[in-house]
């Protein structure tokens, strides 16, 4: 028979041992409660730059800046967009920009919501690959597509353009076709195609981000 003392509590014949929590645990619990309001005031009082989201955005911007140092400032034109379509590691950066800014209108996979489907061969404001960058930079449809030149770095616009161009042909079910069918994109030059496992091609002059 256990000699451990019991409390006076009994429920349907079930008794409770008197095993109080250690003092250090109680004080730790009390300290965490006292700490909470100070933490909330410091990080969640609306002061800019203190939240975890702000810290993440600063770190992300710094990382992006370091990546862009590898390729310099790009030119927002058709040949540059076509060249970066062949660099899978940089296209992933464009995908991140798309996921952060474009899914509310175009859908996560480019299937179209408010904005048109980006995965078919029909376009409303694009006749050639360079027009993708112009639409992103300047907007279209009398503001229905907002301009992003005042919110995105030019390299981000080039890379997201390359990602959008690469979506073509996926034919994801979504909004029906809109606009007119246009000619295929130009082929990516062999020396600009990024080497992938089991694939061909040589690494271009600009390496992908680490």
Automatic annotation (TrEMBL):
Acidic residues bias locations: 189-210
Could you say which residues form the signal peptide?
Answer: none
Supply the source organism's classification: Bacteria, Pseudomonadati, Planctomycetota, Planctomycetia, Pirellulales
Keywords assigned by UniProt? Answer: Electron transport, Heme, Iron, Membrane, Metal-binding, Transmembrane, Transmembrane helix, Transport
Task: Please report the name of this protein according to its UniProt entry.
Answer: Cbb3-type cytochrome c oxidase N-terminal domain-containing protein
- Organism in which the protein naturally occurs: Roseiconus lacunae
For the region Disordered, what residue ranges are annotated? 171-210
- Pfam families from the UniProt entry: Cytochrome_CBB3, FixP_N
Give every Cytochrome c domain span: 89-168
Transmembrane residue ranges: 24-42
Q: Which InterPro entries match?
A: CcoP_N, CcoP_N_sf, Cyt_c-like_dom, Cyt_c-like_dom_sf, Cyt_C_IC, Cytochrome_c_Oxidase_Subunit
